[in-house]
Each structure stands twice: as structure tokens, then as C-alpha cells.
Amino acid sequence: MRVEHDGAAGTRTLASDVDVADTFLSRARGLMFRRSIPDDYAMVFTFGDAGERDLHMVFVPFDLDALWLVDGEVRDKKRLRAWRGLGAAVADTVVELPAGAADEVEVGDGVRVIE
């Protein structure tokens, strides 16, 4: 499984080590209590439909890039700070990546999870 970005510069892989959080418990835990994540890692939160999705960084000791997607289109992007970052936007999928991994991703670009 991988996460790909379709942008102005073409298609590139954002992450090739992907975990999917698709249950209540896996979504609630997210990346809490981990010490770090690999550079090519992504956690993908999937939901059945688009709605307001919020993220917090409580017990996450490293910065993240977060992407909120609706039908594969980036609707919002934010760098979340370790321990105290907060973010919210409408999405049917949320992707968390190591800080800096989404620097070239812009709102309106395509991001897809490929199995």
C-alpha cells in the first residue's frame, strides 16, 4: 500500500509504509505514544462520508503534516506541532505524514491511497 500525490510536478509517492485507521479504536489512538515514524510512513484515517474531522497531537512527540481529503482531492493541509497541535476540516479521508513530507502538496491537488 502507498500514498501518491498528483500535483503540478507530476506524480510522486508520499509514503510506502502505510497504516489504515478504520475502526473506532485505531482512529482514537492514531499515532499517540509512538516515539517516531519512518520518513516514508503515513497513517490514513478512512471514513464513510465527508464530515468535520479533527486531529489533536496529545501524546504525539513529533510534528506531522496532515491532509484532509474529499474524494481524493486535498481540501486542507496543516503542519501540526508536537504535543499541542490541533487541526480540523471537512474530509472523508485524513492522511498524517512526517513533517515535511507534504511540503509540495497544495490544496486542490490529488492524493490517493493505492493498495
From TrEMBL:
It comes from Halobellus limi. This is DUF192 domain-containing protein. Pfam families: DUF192. InterPro entries: DUF192, Saro_0823-like_sf. Signal peptide: none annotated.
